[in-house]
Specification:
- By secondary structure, the chain is mainly α.
- Helices cover about 65% and strands about 0% of the residues.
């Protein structure tokens, strides 16, 4: 009986996935920062909105991670850029989103 080879993810795809993961985590950090800023300024509805967006981005990141690990690919988590937390106004936060 022939030996079945395991499925292998295309190396071109593998090389792009950490960048995609970084995008998701960067977005999560931005939305978390925006939520914290809004809450600190008393914009509770905006804070709740941005918190939910952060949760959505985190879920996206988890899906990318699962996809990568389901293919038995070992990877290093990318570094996350620190978001700018010096917003000028709520409009500034929204424009940066």
């Amino acid at each position: 009986m022939p030996v079945k080879k395991p499925n292998v993810l295309d190396p071109n795809v593998v090389s792009k996935l950490p960048e995609r993961l970084k995008d998701e985590y960067d977005a999560m950090y931005f939305y978390t920062s925006a939520s914290n800023w809004c809450r600190g300024k008393g914009y509770e509805a905006a804070a709740d909105f941005f918190k939910k967006e952060a949760e959505n981005e985190h879920e996206h990141a988890r899906k990318v991670e699962k996809y990568i690990t389901d293919w038995n690919v070992t990877f290093t988590l990318p570094s996350i850029d620190e978001p700018d937390a010096d917003y000028l106004s709520l409009v500034d936060v929204i424009e940066q989103a």
